[in-house]
């Protein structure tokens, strides 16, 4: 699905960000994904198929081509596959505030990532159903602090902007992490730290600096 309204730059200048939407069955992964893509809420989806979408939007004024993988676990033990995790630049971890098991499922997913240091964003969906709440907002916030990632409670059923913000925040984390790994690759290739390099360049070009 493509939304190219308002975006005039060449495709080649786009940053691509791959997001896998993961979480227990029925937490609202498709509802959140479709809300972001179309701004609409559709109550029931095909639960049998995993779907990949493409969606172009501006994030902080820059065009971003999102690739979104709406995963579809068969049961509470069906964790995201190695292929899914290695495909993704970032994971949107979704649980439902009215389903404590789905909160535990998110923890299982993150444990299964082992040392894989990828950008994450924790989303607590169905916050329109507070009367049935099983997971407090504080628990979500604490878990996100543990994972060093962003966190929001949202309702795909009712909100448009809050859902978009979740995808945009994850996108920002992906871009930051990409910049950091490019920088550390450069440092490794040069066999030096960037700040040492900066000193060297300055020393060569700045005649006002002392010679040693
Ligand atoms: N009240 C409420 N219901 C929601 C919300 N989001 C999704 N639902 C409902 O929750 C059910 C499951 O939503 P889906 O989007 O299909 O969930 P899913 O995580 O994609 O499910 P699987 O594909 O089976 O893994 C549907 O009946 C949705 O209408 C929400 O924010 N509030």
Automatic annotation (TrEMBL):
| TM annotation in the entry | none
Where is the signal peptide, in residue numbers? Answer: none
Q: Which reaction does it catalyse?
A: GTP + H2O = GDP + phosphate + H(+)
Whether Transferase counts among this entry's keywords is: no
Tell me which EC number(s) this protein carries. 3.6.5.2
Q: Which domain of life is it from?
A: Eukaryota
Which principal EC class is assigned to this enzyme? hydrolase
Q: Which UniProt keywords apply?
A: Hydrolase
Tell me one GO molecular function of this protein. GTP binding
Give the family from UniProt.
Belongs to the small GTPase superfamily. Ras family.
Q: What is the protein name for this chain?
A: small monomeric GTPase
Q: Which organism is it from?
A: Agrilus planipennis
Organism lineage = Eukaryota, Metazoa, Ecdysozoa, Arthropoda, Hexapoda
């Amino acid at each position: 699905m493509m939304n190219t309204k308002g975006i005039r730059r060449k495709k080649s200048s786009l940053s691509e960000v791959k997001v896998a939407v993961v979480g227990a069955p029925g937490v609202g992964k498709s509802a959140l994904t479709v809300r972001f893509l179309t701004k609409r809420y559709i109550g029931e989806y095909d639960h049998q198929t995993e779907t990949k979408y493409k969606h172009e939007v501006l994030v902080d004024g820059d065009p971003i081509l999102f690739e979104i993988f709406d995963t579809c676990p068969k049961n509470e033990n069906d964790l995201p596959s190695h292929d899914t995790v290695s495909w993704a630049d970032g994971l949107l971890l979704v649980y439902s505030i009215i389903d404590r098991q789905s909160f535990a499922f998110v923890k299982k997913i993150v444990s299964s990532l082992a040392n894989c240091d990828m950008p994450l964003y924790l989303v607590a969906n169905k916050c329109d159903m507070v009367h049935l709440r099983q997971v407090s907002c504080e628990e979500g916030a604490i878990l996100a602090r543990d994972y060093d990632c962003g966190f929001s409670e949202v309702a795909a059923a009712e909100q448009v902007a809050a859902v978009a913000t979740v995808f945009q925040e994850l996108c920002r984390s992906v871009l930051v992490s990409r910049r950091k790994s490019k920088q550390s690759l450069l440092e490794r290739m040069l066999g030096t730290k960037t700040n040492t390099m900066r000193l060297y360049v300055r020393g060569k070009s700045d005649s006002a600096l002392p010679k040693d």
